[in-house]
Hints:
The complex is a heterodimer.
Chain A: H1 4-12, E1 22-29, E2 32-39, H2 44-51, E3 70-73, E4 76-79, E5 92-94, H3 107-114, H4 124-135, H5 143-149, H6 160-171
Parallel strand pairs in A: 1-5
Antiparallel strand pairs in A: 1-2, 3-4, 3-5
Helix pairs in contact in A: 3-6
Chain B: H1 14-18, E1 34-40, E2 46-52, H2 54-58, E3 62-66, E4 80-81, E5 84-85, E6 103-104, E7 110-116, H3 119-126, E8 130-135, E9 148-149, E10 164-166, H4 169-175, E11 178-186, E12 198-206, E13 209-216, H5 221-231, E14 239-242, H6 258-270, E15 274-277, E16 293-301, E17 307-319, E18 340-350, H7 363-381, H8 385-391, H9 409-420, E19 433-434, E20 437-449, E21 455-462, E22 467-470, H10 480-492, E23 499-502, H11 519-543, E24 558-561, E25 564-567, E26 574-576, H12 577-583, E27 588-595, H13 600-603, E28 607-619, E29 624-635, H14 642-661, E30 692-697, H15 721-733, H16 744-753
Parallel strand pairs in B: 1-15, 13-14, 17-18, 22-23, 29-30
Antiparallel strand pairs in B: 1-7, 2-6, 2-8, 3-7, 4-5, 9-18, 10-18, 11-16, 12-13, 12-15, 16-17, 19-20, 20-28, 21-22, 21-27, 24-25, 25-26, 28-29
Amino acid sequence: xxxxxxxxxxxxxxxASDPTNRxxxxxxxxxxxxxxxxESRVALLDALRENLHLTGTKKxxxxxxxxxxxxxxxxxxxxxxxTLAVMSEGKAITTIEGLAQGETLHPLQAAFIRHDALQCGxxxxxxxxxxxxxxxxxxxxxxAEIQEAMSGNLCRCAAYPNILAAILxxxxx
Amino acid sequence: xxxxxxxxxxxxxxxxxxxxxxxxxxxWDLPGLAxxxxxxxxxxxxxxxxxxxxxARRTPxxxxxxxxxxxxxxxxxxxxxxxxxxxxxxGMTEARQPLxxxxxxxxxxxxAVVVADTHERARHAATLVGVTYDEQPPELAMTxxxxxxxxxxxxxxxxxxxxxxxxxxAAALAAAPVRLERVYESAVTxxxxxxxxxxxxxxxxxDGADFLTLYDTTRFLTGVQQIAAGAFSLPKENVxxxxxxxxxxxxxxxxxxxxPLLAALAARMVGRPVKIEWRRQDMFTVAGHRSATRQTLAxxxxxxxxxxxxxxxxxxxxxxxxxxxxxxxxxxxxxYQVPNLGFTHQVAHLNLPSPSTxxxxxxxxxxxxxxCALDELATELKLDPVALRLKNYAEHNPExxxxxSSKHLRDCYARGQALIGWEKRNPVPRAMREGRYLVGYGxxxxxxxxxRNAATARATISADxxxxxxSATHEIGNGARxxxxxxxxxxxxxxxxxxxxxxxxxxxxxxxxxxxxxTTATVGPAVLAACRNALRALRQLAVRDAQSPLFGAAEEAIxxxxxxxxxxxxxxxxxxxxxILRRARLPAVSAEGSAKPGPEKxxxxxxxxxxxxxxxxxxxxxxxxxxxxxxxxxxVGRVMNPPTxxxxxxxxxxxxxxxxxxxxxxxxxxxxxxxxxxxADYHVPSLADTPEMSIEFLDNPDPxxxxxxxxxxxxxxxxxxxxxxxxxxxxxxxxxxxxxPLTPDKLLRAATRA
Lengths: 173, 754
């Protein structure tokens, strides 16, 4: 397992400066450690989808504009397409596959189902990850605050009124 | 029985979607998967002189670079697919096969595919491919383009003529006491589903023959199957297309054949499965779009508001390798009782990407122009906009003379007026304020043609009392998996919990493309037919089985209820499905069923109708228009599942809002490159843009479209909303804006002129 000190060592050796060099990286995802050999240019999103086949995290734009790839890094919402995998070592990554507690859905997941807050489902993991990080441990938000905060997650099916209703309900749960 | 149909059931695949377990096209894990990255054209018109791929080929991990010089040969696209004209003027799609020649018709056209063992290596190597061109000046302006066409029909359909004149519109306009002629323009818009196009292609040898599997993001499994089979000279059975989930389509992902063919070419070349996942910027060039339009609407009327003439002339644009015409007169041709009716469609061929259907093709922007013109006429005549529409209410189809299958549009207007508070507004423009905002109300009529096609399905009842029903239809967010499960449950006499519905695989009984708002009316009857055939097989087992309580009973005397076959007259006499199968030592009974349209379309004109009302707030200091409320009342036949139906309407109306206020793709007028090609510059509505929305259904089953009584709901929400909002902006500000989208600069310019 590579710790931050080791990362510095790689940088000192010039290994990280060539994006095509494969480096040992261990990612901790949903509580499980995954040792990988990755080029330093590999985005966390591609490491999840292509190397680990955790495909619940979605690629919509690869530019940080759609929110489809939202994950939690150390409890904070983060865009996996704008995060290099090697930067994520030693951090606790949560993806949509880890949002439920076993068979028990997160209250937001259950509320999304009840309110039909999804259609094609492609943006849904990102919506859930963004909302769950933002609401965690916080007092309930107003509808206007939710509308503003959730506008970084695009839904082209425009399930928006139902997303709003689901979040309003789930934050009280 | 209608126990499950019409119930507000949760989406059947919601659990998969909220847990990240729904598998989309790019997400299949195949051993040995390689990655394709596409090199696209840097010019809009010319010929490729040379492609230098030496550096790319030397890059570690690169397996091949495909260009027009070394790519396997493809047979040309057929002229038609089923009844749909693909190629030529008025045709559906880009007629050109990828990587077969050196011609460049638009910027962003695929020119090469670099295949490597990782995504990153393929992407990087693609940047090393050098292309030199013999460049020519591109043709980019609709009005001056040399190649102009007037296609006779839309997609070759004899029912969808594009050049029509009934009565004498020119003379009637000249003679009309009140005349109004206006030009309306709309911008290029892109579907931008959040899931980009993606294909994984996998070639195998099966029984000594080539076999191609395509995991493709498509709402037309059988179309991709037929086109790929034709292109590679394979029997149709040797192409398998798989797509259980589509991450949004909205008119895209239906008739796009080049993307899956490119992946198949690449996979053939390297002898490994290849995935091509298109970048967001490519979605602005290879995924289709709604063409820009310039529409001239001329109305003639009597002083009391009776329409005497309507002429609607549309100019749109296609590429040099497609003939798609945006059929903007779709509402004008049928919405109002007008004796002199004319419309034309002209297509300019430009060095821009190939257009395609986009949610409400023709209706969304053509209906916008018509319903804005009606509003302008109402103002001119000092009539209430609803009253003007009622005055010209069409009791039958004015173009064909046929009666409507079912039409309750008056109820839509009345209910919509009540919902928005129409009578409480001050009808005088620019008379209502809330603080710094000007407030306005507007309305528009909406409609969408209803139809049905042929489809097949298979129903299997198992000895454990569970059932599986299958058809090669598509789940694009429309709720297909949910409503066909409900229809199956009723068809089989089973509780929904014991029924599964599967789709998204070309090996299942065939269904047509999911488009044109016809899927419920098309696949639903096939599902019912399959269910009935499976039950018939079960009944025949029971009545011939001496141990069955139904032994010897007449088949007509038996009904299926709650998983039991029982005598209609004595329901206690019967048994459950499993018992019949277990005694017969059968694991399951399975039957196919099919359904196709009857002669009803010869007798009736099928349309869904609706009325949309909008309330807007306009900040004149900034020019920003915000929609505060949208109310839609829809007459769409029987609703299968109110929450999923409401969701489709919410989505359609919001997409209409986007086209009205913010969506626009522009191209550099000299180079033809899209200057808007990402989701930061192309503004799709976000949660913060979403108004308060009320949606109601009249829920009057259509008596003629088939026993389900369901017309379509996928597109009608997108239609009508743009005019309702635009008319509300006029009511708020007194400014007529006739150019979509209604961005702040246009409002400020209009305010300065005033």
